Amino acid sequence: MNFNFFNPTRILFGVGQLDNLHRQHLPGKKALLLVSNGKSTKINGSFDRIVEQLEKAGVEYAIFDKIMENPYKTVIMEGAAFAKENRCDFIVALGGGAVLDSSVAIAAMATNPGDLWDYVCGGTGKGMSLQNPGLPIVTIATTAGTGSEINCWGVISNAETNEKIGFGAVELNPVLAVVDPGLMKTVPPKYTAYQGFDALFHNTEVMISNGVNILSEAIALSAIENIAAYLPRAVKDGNDLEAREHVAYGSTMAGITMQLTSTTAEHSMEHSMSAYHHNLPHGAGLIMISKAFYEFFIEKHACDGQFIKMARAMGIKEADKPEDFITALVRLQEACDVADLKMSDYGFDKSESMTLAKGARSMQGGLFFANPCEMTDEDCAAIFDKSYK
């Protein structure tokens, strides 16, 4: 029954909510407008719409458009320097998980001395505390996957050390998040699936975590039910706004439930995968290892009841055994055409399993403590072996 919940982010959720941005109290006079190095926000019109909203609000802006998938520390430091040079007093982050994650790190480094890795906990990070509050952040989500629009964490890669580690602090929570599923219509089918499964696994990991509580479970089950029911529709037809809205709900709710209960080592394991193979989309990596990962805990009977609850939420109403969750998971992956993803297609070799396992514990070892039972490096490597194809 115990929980500790703090979420200072105002959430505007629903189709058309971007048009209300200029009516909100924005936290500064000049924004660092943070976008990716791709063309999606220009093609789908969201960039022009956000510029219009800032101009209506009387806010100046400077554009930084160099954020890539699995963003590098070097780009974070460049973005922070750009914000200082242009005297930006807050950040507007328009994009998917990479942009939203980057906004947290740039917000911190725009106001603090040194290097980002001075403040990273884990791996080769020095674990120092921030000396100054970061720039305020406003997030505009254009994908449904990470839940980063409403939390204070971002995952950043360090190419020099082959590390991918979460960074954050409670004072870096966004002050305002706009989740407008109308901005998500042009996300391609395979990325809709990858992102949707990222959102799903945030919630399923909360459900099996040893820190799950009455509130985080209720939110996670609601999110799981919505994602499982609507993700195949969103993958099949990106213009299906009803489907987009329900998947976006599941993603944003994950952002909330992750503040109540930690995710588990599934995310540590995937971050190790994409640290060593930078071209791997995060959601795709999670899908690749998911079946073997959850089977590990089912074989241990670590939390049978939680798996049964999730199977029922995913559409198997008569579920009465934990293996029913695996059945529901595989069905959903097949419905979204992602059941046959191969690690070998992204350059993995089966000989890497122990390196990946040790990397997962080194980079984000804290998430292993949230697992419902012990998972050794050998167990972790065996999951990679079982997942390999």
Which features does this protein show?
389 residues; globular; alpha/beta
Can I get a quick summary?
It is built from 13 helices and 8 strands. The protein has helices at 40-43, 46-56, 73-85, 97-109, 189-208, 214-236, 241-260, 265-276, 282-299, 304-313, 323-335, 353-364, 377-387; strands at residues 10-13, 30-36, 60-67, 90-95, 137-141, 153-158, 163-168, 176-179.
What would you note in describing this structure?
The protein has 389 residues and is of the alpha/beta class. Helices cover 46% and strands 12% of the residues. The chain has 13 helices and eight strands. The strands form two sheets. Strands 1-8-5-4-2-3 form a six-stranded parallel sheet, with helices on both faces. A two-stranded antiparallel sheet has the order 6-7. Strand 4 (90-95), helix 4 (97-109) and strand 5 (137-141) form a beta-alpha-beta unit. Helix 6 (214-236) packs antiparallel against helix 7 and helix 8 packs across helix 9.
